[in-house]
Amino acid sequence: MTPNATAKLIVKDLRKTYGPVVALTDASIEVREGEFLTLLGPSGSGKTTMLMVIAGLVQPDSGEVWIDGKLATYAPSFKRDLGMVFQNYALFPHMTVAENIAFPLRMRRLGQADIAREVKRVLDIVRLPHVADRLPRALSGGQQQRIALARCIVYGPSIILMDEPLGALDKKLRDEMQLEIKRLHTELGITVLYVTHDQEEAMVMSDRICLMNDARIEQLGTPADLYFRPRTLFAAGFLGESNILDATVTAVENGRAVLRLAVGDDALVRAVARDGVKPGQSVKLMVRPECLTVLGQGERAENEIQAGLKDVIMVGGITKHYARLPDGKEVVAANLTRGPVAQAAAGEALRLGWSADSSVLLV
Amino acid sequence: MAASAQRARPAWIGLWPILPALLFLGFLFLYPVAQLLWLSALDKASGDLTSAHYVRLFASPLYVKVLRITFEIAGWTTVFVILGAYPVAYYLATSSERRRNALMLWVLLPFWTSFLVRTFAWIVLLGRNGAINKWLQALGITGEPLDLIYNFTGVMIGMTHALMPLAVMTMVSVMENIDANLPRAASTLGARGGQAFWRIYFPLSLPGVAAAGLLVFITALGFFITPALLGGRLETMITQVIITQIQTMMNWAFGGAVSMLLLVAALIVFYLYDRALGMSTLAGSAAASQGEGRPNPVARLGAWAGGHVLDLLGRICDTVAGAWERVFPARPDRPRADRSRMVLTAVVALVIFFLAAPTFFIVPVSFTTDAFIEWPPKFFTLRWYQAYLDSPTWMSATVRSLMVATVAAFLAMLVGAPAAFILARRSMAGKTAAMALILSPLIIPRIIIAIALFYFYARLGLVGSSLGLVLGHAVIAVPYVVVTVMAVLKTYDERLDQAAGSLGANRVQTLWHITIPLIRTGLIAAFLFAFITSFDELTIALFVSGGLATTLPKQMWDDSLLKVNPTLAAVSTMLLVFVTALILSAEYLRRRAAAR
Ligand SMILES: Nc1ncnc2c1ncn2[C@@H]1O[C@H](COP(=O)(O)OP(=O)(O)OP(=O)(O)O)[C@@H](O)[C@H]1O
Ligand SMILES: [Mg+2]
Questions:
Q1: By the 8 A CB rule, do B486 and B424 touch?
Q2: According to CATH, what is the number of the domain A9-237?
Q3: Which of A182, B89, B278, B527 counts the highest number of beta carbons within 10 A?
């Protein structure tokens, strides 16, 4: 990535180990001013570790952290002026909601009158003006979540870190809070570094997603990038459903790679080439189920393959055809339901087709 | 629950396993204690109700003074214990689990080492010819030996040492429940270390401090070994008065009145504690002290003042840290050394050294060729061990202690373990009351249990019998068994039992083939704790065992009243090795059980 002059937060070659366990390594990201960037990855992939290092709560073994153009790798967290929302909210149980929100202002030695005014202001922003005198444990999960946000934005940090802030909420509340967080993000123009292991949440909220796996950054890009142009098998598998086929490259011409599938009738298929692929190399070909269509009589597609139907399932507006390739591998095609699904018998032969643009090479 | 719902029979029938424990304690604890207290209100000759004993108690300046001294000693002990134990508990609670377990053992070891052994160790260290005085003189710090013993200092050192492990364990159990993210959150919100600790962590740890303070204070009220052996005439505590009244004067009614006084004092402290904080905090839940509604105006004022004090403390710490930083500025490109943690580590190392090290001074003294306990010991002889082995008194005391402890531990298991099952798994009416009864032998000063049993046994002809001793020791071992087994059951997945049930096993088969094998190590640990409790017990043995048939601790006590000699050091050393081995195996088993 090119160095960015307006980068709000730069993380360079970060590495952190706990004894023999490598929790994070080779991690570099740049977060732009006002950006919503999400760290997405399975459990234990190092997301929290990265956030903790940025917040100054964990010291890295090596690497650098720059905040607002200033080196902050080992600066204590109270000097970094960023906000953090913890998964379990970390509201102080012995203080009322108002006292909780006032805490960062007290630490900054604001006057009583200013504090009272600011507390009221942020309580209005999160739409909970009536809970000021309650203790945190007298609030619902969603309310606690909002108060944690309020406590974080009250002192106007320019970066907010959130570690799975919605992890403890049920589905409906999650959806609601996702919108709420997005609203605050746009209204206040803050930079957000967000952690989740829910891919849908990451897709809905983020400007860019940083996919992490096994203590490393797997891929960094916009949600569309990650979905339609995954660079690794892991990335393809982590976001959405995918069909993966083994293939060998036979030629590379005008940005297209010509491949011979390991299965099937020696038919050649085409895919968008990728830097460094050479003829003779074995690769994986990934096609999203939405890009795979069941071809009718006489219909043609750029790439085609024969398969035996296994099952047809209508999920509301989407119909899924599960089919088995000659080598036993299963693929699925998902298309909009355009009318009553014809009763197809299992084992019936069918042709599946897709475009070269929608096929992705993985190495 | 599920099982009792299946069949149409009253729910309480399923609760029968708790009955033996309740009956046992009701008969051998509640009834005798009530009887003793009743006795204190009766005229000896006529049997009529009278307040004469209490009038005498309060009319005599002597007893009022003893009461005042007792409270003073218990109060100061509590202060010193909390001051020493807090940093240790904080360090343990904020360390990794492995380090916590390793250090906890060093804290636990003195807790389970015989009171008498520990007290003898202090005599070796603090005496006029003790190790500390010898070193001070050798280093030229003092010319004359200092009076470190047979005075207030000696009592304070001994009692602080004796009670600190209890405080550490109580506080750790509260601090462990404080979310580690809270101080972190404070730090990201702009709080420096001092503010984060004093405003966030400390208030949340207060229930633990209060619970520890309460337990230490109550236990200290009933002490007599330490003041008797390390104190002077001015440090006579109320328990010593009770012992004199009963053993020397045979004045039951008056002894009962003094006991009543001690009990009432303990109950008042409990009551005040409950009013201020609520009993639930004793169970070790952090932040349980904040009641639902906000407190009354007085408490509000206290909270306001407390807030300012904490703010001030936080500022002082941060100013010191800030000043240090100005001299040695931190750099954003270099790892920070956590200086406050280093200071803490040093303090904790000192306190743990204070807890663990003294006991080992008893070991070299047991090999001295001198006829007295003196430092440095002159090496080398085994004659004190020989003396112990050759003495029929010591031998029979040892055998008796081993036998009594074994049987008492079995009995306590038999009575306590089923009760633990019920308390851990069933909901029932009056559970709190049942729990209170089961735990009260730990809380009621032991001397009261001892003389109550003495009086009770005297009429049954059980004084001096092994049976009487076994029953008495089982009374105080039951709470340990219940607590340990409940802790193990907490980690036990009850669905395993339900699975066995669904596969056709009846309740007994399930218990025998599934539950007991899985919690076996926990049961063994509970047995060992019960065993040590009895093996180490002096107070009850002092009264109940009668003149002849003595136990090991009682023999040590009797001997030490004459003269603390190297034979005692030899016995103590053997005890130390034996109990340490037991503790290590109990701890090992407990951990294996917990690891599952
Ligand atoms: N304090 C610690 N001590 C030892 N190992 C740790 C510690 N913190 C994290 N780890 C290890 O570092 C690795 C990364 O952990 P991290 O908490 O960053 O994962 P994560 O991506 O946040 O996972 P999750 O989604 O479960 O929260 C894991 O293997 C974890 O076990
Ligand atoms: Mg995490």
A1: yes
A2: 3.40.50.300
A3: B89
For ligand 1, atom 25, which residue shows the shortest CA distance?
A43
Q: How far is the C-alpha of A221 from the C-alpha of B589, rounded, in Å? A: 52
CATH 2.40.50 residue ranges in chain A?
Answer: 241-362
**Hey, of B99, B181, B188, which one would you mutate to test binding to chain A, going by the most A CBs within 10 A of its CB?**
B188
Closest ligand 1 atom, residue A47 Cα: 21
Q: How many CB atoms lie within 10 A of CB A18?
A: 12
DSSP state, residue A110:
-
Query: CA nearest B172: which of B267, B95, B73, B65?
Result: B95
Could you tell me which chain B residue has the CA closest to the CA of A152? B189
Give me the residues paired with residue A324 across strands.
A308, A330
**Where in chain A do CATH 3.40.50.300 domains reside?**
9-237
The two tokens of residue B416 are 């306590």
Task: Specify the residue for token string 């298309």.
Answer: A335
| Residue A313 structure tokens | 């399932």
- CATH topology classification for A241-362: OB fold (Dihydrolipoamide Acetyltransferase, E2P) (2.40.50)
- Cβ A44 under 6 angstroms from ligand 1: yes
Amino acid in the structure at residue B278: G
Residue A45 alpha carbon, nearest atom of ligand 1: 21
State the span(s) of chain B assigned CATH 1.10.3720.10: 17-39+391-562, 51-360
How many Å apart are CA B590 and CA B483, to the nearest integer?
A: 13
CATH T-level fold of B51-360: MetI-like fold (1.10.3720)
Contact B77, B163 (CB under 8 A): yes
Burial class (CB in 10 A: 0-12, 13-18, 19+), A122: buried
Q: Is residue A53 within 6 Å of ligand 1 at its C-beta?
A: no
Written as tens digits, the pLDDT of chain B (596 aa) is 444 444 556 666 778 888 999 999 999 999 999 988 888 888 777 778 888 888 888 888 888 899 899 999 999 999 999 999 999 999 999 998 888 888 888 887 777 778 888 888 898 899 888 889 888 988 988 888 888 889 999 999 999 999 999 899 888 888 888 899 999 999 999 998 889 999 999 988 988 898 889 889 988 998 898 999 999 888 899 899 888 888 887 888 888 888 888 888 888 888 887 777 655 555 443 333 444 444 555 556 666 777 788 888 888 888 888 888 888 887 877 887 788 889 999 999 999 999 988 888 888 888 988 887 778 888 888 899 999 999 999 999 999 999 999 999 999 999 999 999 888 888 778 888 888 899 889 888 888 999 899 989 988 888 888 899 999 999 999 998 998 888 888 777 778 888 888 888 888 888 888 888 888 877 887 898 889 889 989 999 988 887 667 899 999 988 888 877 888 889 988 988 888 887 787 777 767 766 65
The fold of the B17-39+391-562 domain, in CATH, is: MetI-like fold (1.10.3720)
Q: Whose CA is nearest to atom 19 of ligand 1?
A: A44
Closest residue by Cα to residue B239 from B268, B219, B264, B259: B259
Burial B424-447 (b: 16+ CB within 10 A, else e): beeeeeeeeebbebbbebbbbbbb
Residue with CA closest to ligand 1 atom 11: A23
Using a CB-CB distance cutoff of 8 angstroms, which residues of chain B are in contact with residue A70?
332
d(CA B537, CA B535): 6
CA atoms within 13 A on the CB side of B286: 21
Distance from CA of B544 to the nearest CA of A (A): 49
Contact B241, B63 (CB under 8 A): yes
Angle between helices B566-595 and B516-535 (to 10 degrees): 160
